[in-house]
Amino acid sequence: MAPTLPRFDLKDRSVLITGANRGLGAALCKTILQYSPKIIHAGYRTTPGDFEDPRIQWCQLNIADGESVAAAASSIGELDVLINNAGILIPTAADAAEETANLEAMMDLHLHHPLRLIDTLLPMLQASSQPMIVNMISMAAFASVPGCEGYCTSKAALHAATQGLRLKHPTIQCVGVYPGPTATDMTAGSTAPLADAVESAATIVSGLCEGKTAIFPDEAALAVESLVGAGVATLEQQFTTLLSD
Ligand SMILES: NC(=O)c1ccc[n+]([C@@H]2O[C@H](COP(=O)([O-])OP(=O)(O)OC[C@H]3O[C@@H](n4cnc5c(N)ncnc54)[C@H](OP(=O)(O)O)[C@@H]3O)[C@@H](O)[C@H]2O)c1
After folding, report:
1. pTM surpassing 0.85?
2. What CATH homologous superfamily does 14-240 map to?
């Protein structure tokens, strides 16, 4: 069982979600609205989502574009919760050069760009009374899935980076979310059983409020947690003291 953090109240908080216009990001956005946040900066790359609320501020944010990141950061003002949700799944390519380029793109989108966004927003997060960073990872961070090895590699890197963030920023609650296959555009055409994005979002947000550090929000993810959850949490704990004293 992963250690728990202090309980978290989303009431009156300022939240930024990347990729909030559709899929799990949109579901998270709508779920968080039920918790009375002050404002949700709902990130979109090209087109805002098709839902409105006075507390939603649509915010153009392409995390791959440094200028877009700087402009979004300067429009935000204050921030308590950053949810790194933007993602892409490019299936494994037969051509080696194409596969290398795809891996680079996914490592950028799932690792380098979220870390750059965190660095940019760090002063605002550190000014919060209870800052939180949430990284949308995947249960596929723990073992590669045939046909999407590059995706799994990039999510494994984000999982390791999330553990690293906890070490580097002990005053920030850093949470990893590990969904299983979920019904969104990302899994269109999949024949695997798919979790419902709205139900998963409800589980994710209640887990954040309970102070969980690792959230496995659906049935497939819970099966992975039962295999590796306790071991991963124990190792992380043990490694924190490995080189101390
Ligand atoms: N669905 C699953 O089965 C599943 C399982 C485990 C983990 N996850 C993870 O959960 C997260 C959300 O997935 P999803 O299923 O909701 O995917 P989705 O429906 O395909 O939506 C992806 C979102 O990411 C945004 N995005 C892509 N590139 C971006 C960029 N450069 N800058 C900003 N936003 C960008 C997209 O914006 P545009 O609309 O502009 O393209 C879109 O809003 C991802 O990190 C994914 O890896 C998903």
Report:
1. yes
2. NAD(P)-binding Rossmann-like Domain (3.40.50.720)
